[in-house]
């Protein structure tokens, strides 16, 4: 579709893809801010932002395989580092991972309802992220992307035993949390903190991508490989969900850092709020009399 497609290099086409993902996310956030008549802390807005953030996290990951085949492990390192660095500045108002949700539910049972809402939104966004990626690839910015768009067969990235894969994914999450904590202590709220975290994410991904795909995030792993050939659903859940969640919980226990997932109650209908306020006014009027 694009005359320049055959002259464009793969990494340039990938940059266009990433840029498109971030632009779409920002447009969706603008739509939420402009057209959703709810306060920013309402459950509706929170869930919409969670959907957008998860979409932004998952969609670029569908290009990692292309970079790996074209540029090897160093290309993956650069790609993941750049994406994570961009997310540090551009992603906001979302969790985009089930790990802190599950561990917070273990500590605070009362947030279970909202956690289920958020998890459902994350799964929906993960499912749609593959459609969004395929839609972009079908445009034909690069012939390699066209091949990906027309290939509907997928296979798991797991090339080792389930126990080994679970250990690798869990260790990656645990090490990532350790690096994140150290970087936060030494370079709090500075660009160095973001650079250290992003570089380590790129390094650990390049280190383990040939064994498990090294996702480090259950929702991203499911977006890319759930229901693919090569591993059962139960095996997928054990490697990419159970192991990272357990590792996240261990990191909170060892490091003493808790990622609290606070409850946000659903907003009441306007009429109910007005009735309650009217009752308060009547009661206060009687007291004055």
From TrEMBL:
Basic and acidic residues composition bias: residue spans: 268-289
Residue ranges of the TM segments: 15-32, 116-137
GO cellular component term of the entry, any: cytoplasm
Organism: Pristionchus entomophagus
Domain of life: Eukaryota
UniProt keyword terms in alphabetical order: Membrane, Transmembrane, Transmembrane helix
Protein known as: Aquaporin
Bilayer disposition of the protein: Multi-pass membrane protein
Start and end residues of each stretch annotated as Disordered: 266-289
GO molecular function, one term: channel activity
Main location: membrane
Compartments, as annotated in UniProt: Membrane
């Amino acid at each position: 579709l694009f005359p320049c497609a055959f002259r464009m290099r793969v990494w340039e086409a990938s940059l266009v893809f990433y840029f498109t993902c971030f632009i779409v996310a920002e447009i969706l956030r603008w739509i939420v801010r402009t057209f959703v008549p709810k306060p920013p802390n309402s459950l509706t807005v929170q869930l919409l932002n969670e959907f957008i953030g998860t979409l932004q996290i998952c969609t670029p990951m569908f290009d990692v395989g292309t970079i790996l085949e074209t540029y090897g492990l160093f290309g993956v390192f650069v790609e993941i580092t750049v994406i994570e660095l961009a997310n540090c500045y551009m992603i906001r108002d979302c969790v985009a991972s089930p790990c802190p949700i599950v561990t917070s539910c273990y500590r605070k049972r009362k947030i279970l309802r909202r956690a289920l809402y958020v998890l459902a939104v994350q799964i929906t966004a993960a499912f749609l992220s593959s459609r969004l990626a395929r839609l972009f690839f079908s445009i034909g910015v690069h012939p390699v992307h066209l091949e990906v768009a027309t290939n509907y067969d997928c296979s798991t990235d797991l090339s080792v035993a389930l126990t080994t894969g679970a250990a690798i994914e869990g260790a990656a999450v645990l090490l990532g949390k350790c690096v994140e904590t150290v970087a936060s202590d030494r370079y709090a709220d500075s660009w160095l903190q973001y650079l250290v975290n992003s570089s380590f994410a790129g390094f650990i991904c390049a280190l383990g991508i040939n064994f498990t795909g090294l996702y480090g995030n259950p929702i991203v792993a499911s977006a890319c490989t759930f229901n693919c050939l090569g591993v059962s659903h139960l095996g997928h859940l054990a490697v990419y969900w159970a192991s990272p969640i357990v590792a996240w919980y261990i990191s909170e226990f060892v490091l003493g850092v808790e990622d609290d997932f606070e409850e946000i109650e659903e907003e009441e209908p306007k009429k109910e709020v007005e009735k309650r306020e009217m009752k308060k006014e009547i009661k206060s009027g009687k007291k004055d009399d």
